[in-house]
């Protein structure tokens, strides 16, 4: 009888072949205002009830690729250890999962995507290919073969200027100039405030995706020189259809930063984009797998540099549409 029971336990024990893929079942789970604990039956999220008891909700650790712990959440060491054994990345995030404070990748996770990222980053030709694919993915148009990185920056600048003009006309605003000046933040217009708040949320979601895949946020292909270069690359792919339109819609708001964060959290627009972000990062790194004005002031305000194989690092936060003399507009 004991032998039969041992055999049943062995069959129930998960094997490598049984572990879920990223695309299978649940992938990302956001929890907040609870305590994540390990019980005799598994990992649970528990909260106190009005009657003074404790309500527990089981968490399917074996089916999770990434769990995001929001505000008001604590986790015990045994519960964290279970996530690590199941290969689940644990991320601490802001409300709604739209900010990233830190992450703990599972030690057993593959370095497949980090390897591909590092190899492409170290090869100027492949890096240029990925930078080109980012532009094509961002704006939905093909780029002529041999287009230089300078020309890509100019094309990106033209497209963003056009988008700003279009939205300014729609909301009957004066011509819009992107401006990020921490020293005079209170003097910024509502659109700039909402855009900065929305982009911060977008960076957080992109950071969570990059952490889950095991990629390095520092190895960017368009941006360079900062620990968050790659997440800026990825976040740029979605700004034109998420944070930019949202910011212009809040042009008359008295609390544009708060409303931008609230709308992104309440609608979970960015959170729902996570599966697409995962897929886009994978396609960028492996296409065969089934993307302003410089603020006046101290140079330390520059958030990140841009990669250039000839000129080296060039300033980020610059609209390069006017930097190519004689090029068609």
TrEMBL record:
Q: Would the keyword Transmembrane helix be found if you checked this record's keyword annotation?
A: no
Keywords of the record: Antiviral defense, DNA-binding, Endonuclease, Hydrolase, Magnesium, Manganese, Metal-binding, Nuclease
Superkingdom classification of source? Bacteria
Q: What is its EC number?
A: 3.1.-.-
- Among the Pfam families in the record, one is Cas_Cas1
Residue positions annotated to bind Mn(2+) are 156, 223, 236
Its function, per the record, reads: CRISPR (clustered regularly interspaced short palindromic repeat), is an adaptive immune system that provides protection against mobile genetic elements (viruses, transposable elements and conjugative plasmids). CRISPR clusters contain spacers, sequences complementary to antecedent mobile elements, and target invading nucleic acids. CRISPR clusters are transcribed and processed into CRISPR RNA (crRNA). Acts as a dsDNA endonuclease. Involved in the integration of spacer DNA into the CRISPR cassette.
To which protein family does this belong?
Answer: Belongs to the CRISPR-associated endonuclease Cas1 family.
Q: HAMAP family attached here? A: Cas1
Subunit notes for this chain?
A: Homodimer, forms a heterotetramer with a Cas2 homodimer.
Q: What is this protein called?
A: CRISPR-associated endonuclease Cas1
Species of origin:
Spinactinospora alkalitolerans
| Biological classification of the source | Bacteria, Bacillati, Actinomycetota, Actinomycetes, Streptosporangiales
Whichever gene encodes this chain, its name is cas1
């Amino acid at each position: 009888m004991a032998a039969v029971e041992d055999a049943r336990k062995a069959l129930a024990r998960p094997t490598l072949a049984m572990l879920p893929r990223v695309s299978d079942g649940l992938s990302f789970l956001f929890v907040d205002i609870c305590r994540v604990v390990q019980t005799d039956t598994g990992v649970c999220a528990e909260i106190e009830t009005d009657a003074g008891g404790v309500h527990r909700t089981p968490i399917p650790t074996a089916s999770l690729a990434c769990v995001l712990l929001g505000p008001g959440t604590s986790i015990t060491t045994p519960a964290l250890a279970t996530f690590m054994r199941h290969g689940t990345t644990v991320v601490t995030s802001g409300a709604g999962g739209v900010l990233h404070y830190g992450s703990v990748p599972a030690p057993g996770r593959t370095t497949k995507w980090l390897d591909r990222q590092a190899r492409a980053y170290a090869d100027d030709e492949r890096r240029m290919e990925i930078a080109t694919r980012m532009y094509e993915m961002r704006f939905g148009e093909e780029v002529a073969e041999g287009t230089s990185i300078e020309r890509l920056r100019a094309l990106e600048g033209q497209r963003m200027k056009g988008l700003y003009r279009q939205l300014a006309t729609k909301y009957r605003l004066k011509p819009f100039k992107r401006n990020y000046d921490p020293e005079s933040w209170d003097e910024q217009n509502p659109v700039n405030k909402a855009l900065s708040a929305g982009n911060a949320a977008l960076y957080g979601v992109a950071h969570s995706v990059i952490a889950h895949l095991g990629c390095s946020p520092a190895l960017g292909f368009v941006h360079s020189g900062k620990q968050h270069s790659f997440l800026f690359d990825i976040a740029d792919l979605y700004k034109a259809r998420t944070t930019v339109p949202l910011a212009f819609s809040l042009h008359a708001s008295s609390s544009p930063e708060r409303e931008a964060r609230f709308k992104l959290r309440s609608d979970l627009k960015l959170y729902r984009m996570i599966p697409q972000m995962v897929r886009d990062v994978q396609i960028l790194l492996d296409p065969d797998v089934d993307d302003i004005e410089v603020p006046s002031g101290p140079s330390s305000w520059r958030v990140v540099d841009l990669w250039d194989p000839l000129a080296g690092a060039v300033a980020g936060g610059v609209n390069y549409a006017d930097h190519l003399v004689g090029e068609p507009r």
